[in-house]
Every structure is written in C-alpha cells, then in structure tokens.
C-alpha cells in the first residue's frame, strides 16, 4: 500500500508533546487562552488533542481498507448508544496518564474536563448500546468494519421528574459542538422517495425504473472507533439529512424564500430526532423515512467504494457482510436488489443470490408487538419500487414454501411477507428471514424461542439459517474505564491481558478463597460506592449511605421487565418495618436504586415511574423506615451514570418474566463488576447462572414453559391476591392511597391492571421473589461468603465480553478475518 501524502507524525506520546498539542488546540482551534478559556473550551481542546493522536492511525486504517480485498463487516443500526467518547479515546490511545499529568501541569483537572462532555444519546437502550459495544470490539480485534447509522440532532430525551412524574426535555447534545465528528459534505448522497415506477421493454426485456417524487441529501459524519492500543481506528458513519440544492434553487428562483426554508426544514426533519421507543414499534411515516434514508445512503456508500477499488459487484459477498441490527435496516434488502437490478443491470436471480449472501439479521425481541410491520399503503406511497420488489421476493418465496410443504394455504398465509390482517402490511422480520443467510437471537434461550415460537415456520423451512450469538459488553468501557480500582486489582493478580481477552478472568478463581484479596475487593467496592455517593449528591441532590447494600435495577421502563415486582418488594419491606414485623436496627440495610426512562407515549410505564417516586418519597421521609431502607431514583439514567453505578452495586435485579427479555446486557455488566444477581431464568441470566453457579446467583420465578402453561390454562392473577396475605397487604396498601397522599385513585390503574390482567405475571412470581430476597439478606450478613461469590462472579463471566460475541459472529455468520494495521 502506498500513502500518497507524506506521513504526518502524531504529536509525541509524552507529557511535553501532549501539552504542546493541547496549547496549540486551545490557541488555534478554540481561539482562546488558558486564562480566558471556558470549561467547554478546555474540554474541546482536550478532545481535539486526544483525537490528533488517533488521526494518523485512522487515515492509515482507511487507506488500507480501501485497497484490501478482505471481507469487511458493515453494521447497520438505527441506534448507536455510544456514551462519552473522551475516556475511551484516552485509553485506546494509551494517553490516560500522560493527559492527566499534562493537564495538571497547566493547572487543569482531567476529571473536571471529562465531566464537560455531553454523551451522544443516539439510542434507546439495549439494542443501541450493544451496537456500540460491538464496534468497539471489532476495532480492538482488528476486523475491517464500519458502523452505519443516523446522526440524530436530538438523541434520547432528557428525563426530569415533576411531582414524581416523567417529563421529557429535548436532548440538544450538539449545542456545544461535537469534537468527535468530521463532516464529509463532498461525499453526500442523494436519497429519493415517493413518485411512481415505469416499465419499458427494450429488446424484449422488461426494465423497471423508479421515478421518484422528491429527494433529500444524506450528509455523512465520520466518528472514530479506536481499537484498544492496536493502531486500528475504524469508522462509524452517521448520516444527516439536508435539502437538495436543486430543490432550494428552484424555489429561490421563484423568489419564495419562506418556501425554500420550509423545504429545508422538511428535509432536515428526517434526522431530527431519535424515536424514543424501546421494544414497541411506532408506525410513523417519518420512521420509515429515517430507516430508508440511512440504509440507502450506507449501501450506496459501500457499493461505490467497492466499485472504485476495482472490484466486481458479483463478488460483493466476498467484500462485505451487512449485519441488520433488528428490523430497522431491513429495507436494505429490497434496496440492494434495486441497486443491482435497476441501476447496475444484473439479472434478478443473480442479484437475489448476491443479496441473500450479503445480509444477516439479528432479532432483539420476543414481544410480538415489537416486530415491525409497515402498511402496504405507506410503503407503496413512500417507496413504490421497493414495494414491487418485496412483492416479487414474496411470490418467489411462497412458491418455494409450496414446493417444500405442499399446498398448505394456511401455512402460506402465515409465512407470507405481506400480512393481510388487520391491514395489508409488510412484515419486516419475515422479509429479513427470507433475504438473509443467517438469523440470530441474542442469548441461548431467546434463539431457541425464536426457532420454536416467533419464527418457527421459517425455522422449519430453512433450519440451517438459524443460530445463536449470546450478547456481550465491552470490557474496555465497562470494566477498565468504569472500574479503575477493580481493574488494577485484577491486573495485579493476573496481568493486564484480560482487557482484550476476558476469558483470562478465570485465573482469578483461586483468589476467591484468599481472604486478603476479598478484603481488597470489598474495599474497592466501598470506594466505588463513595464515587456514586458523590455523583448522586452533585448531580441529583440525592443522599445515599455507602454502608448499605446497594440493590440496583436500571433499564428501560417496561412492564415485561417488571420494575413493579421490585416496587412490591420495597412496599412489603416498608410495611413490615412500619408494623414492627422487622426491626430497623437489625435488618439488612438497603438502598434501592432505580434508573429508567419510559417511552413518552407508554402510559402505564409512566404511571409506574410515578409509583416508584411516590413510594420512594414515603420511604425516605419515614423516620423509622428510612433507618433501614432508602429509595434513590436519579432521573435521566444514561451510559455515563451506568459507568459509576454499575461498579458500586452489590445486587443486580434482572427480574423479567421468563421468556420475555431477549438477553439483557446490564446483567452482564453487573456480574463482571462483582454484583450478585437476583434473577429469573430468562435471557442471558440463564447463561450467567450456569457459569457462576447456582450458589452464586439468586434464582426465582416461573420458567418459560411454566409461565406459558399457566397462561394457556387461563391465568387468574386475583387468585394469587386471594391466597397470599402478604401480597394482599402490599396491594391493599398501594390501593389505600398510602403513597398518594390518601388519594386512592392515583395508583388504581396499576393495582387493577395487576389484579385483572397482569400480562407479565408479577403476582404469580411475587412469593418466589420475596423468598429470594430473604435469601439475599441472609447471605449478605456473611460478608466473607458474599464477597467470595462476588469474586467468583467476576472470575466466571469473562464469556460475556463483546469480543467473544464478535468472535462468534465471525465464526458463525460473517466469516471475516482480522487484518492488522501496518506501520
Ligand atoms: C433489547 C432487548 O430487550 C434486550 O434483552 C437485549 O439485551 C438487547 O436488545 C440487545 O440485544 N431489545 C431492544 O432494545 C429492542 O428490541 N429495541 C427495538 C424495538 C426497538
């Protein structure tokens, strides 16, 4: 490979080099002086300084990638929940200590400047955070990879509480400038919508073209994805929408300035805001526009690069594995067909063979209502050519179904990509199942339920397509960065190889029996709690006691995740303390920490948030109860908060109804940081428990087959209420207005929903959960035993590194190999 520009050396990797570069950035880019600079100036100069160390690696990676015939992974995702960038860039470039020292020399504090970064909240929850972990792992494992997504101007809303109720505020994360992105306006792509199609016959061959109605421009912004100390910097390319110049000009020429601005606004709306949904689709036209917009731009980008590098489109499957992160990017399948057939002139069958080989699909849910469908009416209006392509894909697929299974019209109707009822609609998960080589779930149980239930017909049709890849989390962010104390202890014990090979944590196993190691482990946990105390005090004005057990439930607010079950436990403890059934002096003292955002349109979730806050206020305000338990619910839980909260936790709450949580990844982060889990047999909990051992995990609740059997026989939640006096007391207390200033109506919808519907079987699992919590208390009293289990949780959960997940994807789905960066 030849570099055409002479290599520009990075600043020297020492304190002097760093300081010089920092002052340069402050002076020439920020245009200020040390004395005059605001905190934001100082942060931006720091970010740019760190970036400059990674820049030539980035260039080298990109140049090499262009020319190399290696297969690349292109991860298509509507969400990348990145978290703060500075810290990660510091550790990836080996600059952490140098920067701290250099800044100190200038009278600045690294910690203070790091806190100035606003995290890009370009995702809702698990799915988006997983994408961020995956691209980190791919870079660290030296895999040529690119992430493609959307640069939302407003990410996930900022949550505040007013009278305990969630209020959403816009997340204007770009306000102070974003030093981590580089715009590439010269690489913008025109993306079209609407219009109609025309078919002509040339030399006896039918050719269809799409005559779109309107277009927008997709402007790419590149983000660095640095590998950990390995010289590779991959790219995350996020697209932003702009009005086309032609559109502007035409209107300007008519002298209608206002109309031109409106057109601009209309176009830019496409990437204005992240849909604040998690696990439920929202049938909004704008959302389909977003999906097509980023997918079409990304495919165009990749395909043109392949062609520019001199490769043939017939070899596209050797060049790329496009991974579809859930159904949001699935419109890529008909789009690639359109590109290959309509634009590049390939025959349909040829194009279909290529397309199927290029794509693989990951499903992240089990809730039927979360599987995206798009009304045929909308799809035909917005993407008429794609609708035709989908029809043809469906026709040919259903022919194959008939050929394989005979003329079972019920089956054909069930498997059709087009649903007929309640309205004609495109089932995106089905399109994904048909148009890909592989389909994976995200934990063993989830993948099995996908095969047996959600996509069972497809599994019968093409069993070889189905596979599992259990999720993982990046140890760089969630251990090395988030938990410096534990990281140092681990490194002291077993060396630092674990940061890029987390299976090495198993070498910690013998230390679980070492009393001195356990003592230091506890000391670190205690230090992490102190950090959390400071954070909650400064950020939220919340006081917590670091000498209590920290019992944490953080995740999106959803009924299936069952924050309500946790609330029932809190209320039960409140009741027992108040009635004297337990003694506040001798019981185990706990702090219950919640963190959760509810989708703004999800009413019941918002009621549950209000209930948690109201119960919290009552508990914390009661002079007797608050001696033994306290509730903390900091608003606006995000990646940054997680990084302080997770390392401080003693107990991790993973209490979804079995069969509903696809995997969970928070569960992995907690276990890796030495929290014990109280959990159901659901998602990745199953694998966590198998690995850490029953004795180091508090299992409770129905299994998935048990829960399904009860549902089939006719679940009657009120029968649990009638038969269980403890449960009755708890529900009656909530219904009595105890937590709503005597107003019985406030939480009536929650109570009556539990008694009469309880879709996620909170009441059925109540007693089992209470029993598990008793076991937790008993065990916690024995701090030696507890910390032994905690150390074993760390030692036995190296499997949950996203590096391992990536290796599984590479082996089972992508078949791509590492390419070290030269030089
Ligand atoms: C989440 C799952 O709920 C979680 O169990 C899993 O760990 C995570 O994905 C990563 O695999 N699913 C979603 O976030 C999800 O389905 N979101 C889309 C529906 C919007």
Notes on the structure:
The protein is an alpha/beta fold and about 800 residues long. It has three domains: about 1-65 and about 90-120, no CATH class; about 70-85 and about 120-470 and about 810-815, Rossmann fold, CATH 3.40.50.2000; about 515-795, Glycogen Phosphorylase B (Rossmann fold). The chain contains 34 helices and 25 strands. Strands 1, 4, 7, 8, 11, 12, 13, 14, 18 and 19 form a ten-stranded mixed beta sheet that branches. A six-stranded parallel beta sheet has the order 22-21-20-23-24-25, with helices on both faces. The longest helix is centred in the first third of the chain and has 29 residues, at about 40-65. The chain is globular and about 90 Å long. The protein starts with 14 loop residues before the first helix and ends in a 9-residue tail after the last helix. Bound molecules: N-[(cyclopropylamino)(oxo)acetyl]-beta-D-glucopyranosylamine. N-[(cyclopropylamino)(oxo)acetyl]-beta-D-glucopyranosylamine (8GP) binds near residues 125, 130, 279, 442 and 665. It comes from Xylanimonas protaetiae. It catalyses: [(1->4)-alpha-D-glucosyl](n) + phosphate = [(1->4)-alpha-D-glucosyl](n-1) + alpha-D-glucose 1-phosphate. GO terms for molecular function: glycogen phosphorylase activity; pyridoxal phosphate binding. Belongs to the glycogen phosphorylase family. Its EC number is 2.4.1.1.
Please identify which CATH superfamily of the largest domain we are dealing with. Glycogen Phosphorylase B
**Count of runs of 4 or more consecutive helical residues:** 34
Q: Enter the CATH topology name of the largest domain.
A: Rossmann fold
CATH class of the largest domain: Alpha Beta
Class derived from helix and strand content: alpha/beta
Please report the total strand number as a whole number.
25
* Overall 3D shape: globular
Largest sheet: 10 strands, mixed
Low-confidence segments, given as residue ranges, are: none
Based on the structure given, which CATH architecture of the largest domain is correct?
A: 3-Layer(aba) Sandwich
Mean pLDDT: 95
The fraction of residues in strands falls at 5-15%
The end-to-end span amounts to: 11 Å
**Rg over C-alpha atoms, rounded to the nearest angstrom:** 27 Å
- Helicity level, as a percent range? 40-55%
Bound molecules: N-[(cyclopropylamino)(oxo)acetyl]-beta-D-glucopyranosylamine
